[in-house]
Amino acid sequence: MDTQARIPAPLGLLAELTHRCPLACPYCSNPLELEDRRDELDIAAWGRVFREAAELGVLQVHLSGGEPASRRDLVAITATASQAGLYTNLITSAIGLDADRLRALKDAGLDHVQLSIQDTEAESSDMIAGYTGAYARKRAFARSVVSLGLPLTVNAVVHRANIAGLADMVRMADDMGAGRVEIAHVQYYGWALRNRDALMPTRTQVEQATREMETLQQRHAGGLAIDFVVPDYYARRPKACVGGWGRRSLNVTPSGTVLPCHAAQTIPGLEFWSVRDHPLADIWTLSPAFTAFRGTGWMQEPCRSCAFREVDFGGCRCQALAIVGDAAATDPSCELSPHHARMAALAEESAARTDARYAYRGRGEREAVFGSRRPTPIPVR
Amino acid sequence: MVDGATPAIPERPRLAPGVRLHFDKTRDAWVLLCPERVIEAEGPAHEILKRCDGARTVGAIIDELATVYAADRAVIAQDVTDMLAELAAKRLLV
């Protein structure tokens, strides 16, 4: 098949080792329906996936979840990835990883640790995570990472409750000894979409935050690296979601289904293949889900004739589906989309909702955190 | 925190923790694997990078490359220090 020759090899693989997680962050972008523990791939299957991935051209594997440490065999899984020659990055909440287990991970070949934080104060952090004591454990974990000489990235998801505290977050990441901090606005997929009304900041807050991040990046130039991911809903141009569909990365779910992106299963009619049935290389090149939006042939106007079509690849398919109702439409975060104004209006409506509550997975609801630093106090019911 | 300052080239440079030099068979290229990034080590860059082992001095690296490429040491010295300065600025060297 001559099209195969033109398909670039993927660089990164997101390995969702489990959907289990001790935290219950309202902005979780995993699907509403999680996969069951009994269906999780075993270590032999992951070993095969990693070897096939390396053979296919993948260079980096991101061990994620859920909380990957919820798997008792995390150290052995990490070792198989490392032995396959992959650069291993652990994406964790820190819960379930003490200093001994972390040392074992390092010995297994772990290259890099990415730690999530929710906020810079214990009370608010634990409330957002839905887990008492999470903040203290994250601080202790960061000390272990640094003392072992492992490189640390701190990752914070930004929303209404913590958007006024970004400078404090950057300071906290610096204090923790991180080499890099990633400040990313909520991506409204999966569970997060359900909590949009409780999470969405106002446009003014986002504009202030963006200016603040630019100042912080300048202040830390040459030192702490600060990556900032802007929120789609207030953007003018779409993000090049996953670097282009089926172009740079792939995602393996806990049960072995291979996805072009994290939220691809929200798109109806796509046929996904599993590593239980097919070699990874075949899934990458031939499976219907990967070929559906690869390249530019599937595009409609205004994408089809747009000068940016191979820069942003039309943005995010899942967002086009969620907002426009058509996965092949232009991502409405693009100002050239006829639905762009509606997306901004949705954001403003959500941001104006002061009565929204956090829905936690399996734990009911509670009042949303508005943050003590919010400029105008909002009465919470 | 060093505010906005460019870090100096270390005396005996080595790759920062979390940064690895790797030969990518699929793309037939040397790459630096870094947290969340892959940087292609173009041309002779890998010959410099593989000598950044924390043992060799910058001077020793220059001497070896001048031999490997049978080139004028002054030219090599400029190329090596330019590249090491760039890597140090990106915090890829310690």
Question: Concise description?
Answer:
In chain A, helix 2 (43-56) packs parallel to helix 3 (74-83) and helix 3 (74-83) packs parallel to helix 4 (99-107).
Specify the overall morphology of chain B: globular
What characteristic shape of chain A results from the CA principal axes?
Answer: globular
Percent in helix of chain B: 25-40%
Order of helices and strands of chain A: HEHEHEHEHHEHEHHHEEEHHHHEE
- Average pLDDT of chain A: 92
Q: What gap, in angstroms, lies between the N and C termini of chain A?
A: 61 Å
Helix/strand structural class of chain A: alpha/beta
**Order of strands across the widest beta sheet of chain A?**
7-6-5-4-3-2-1-8-9
Please list the strands of the largest sheet of chain B in the order they lie side by side.
Answer: 1-2-3
Judged by helices, strands and strand pairing, the structural class of chain B is alpha+beta
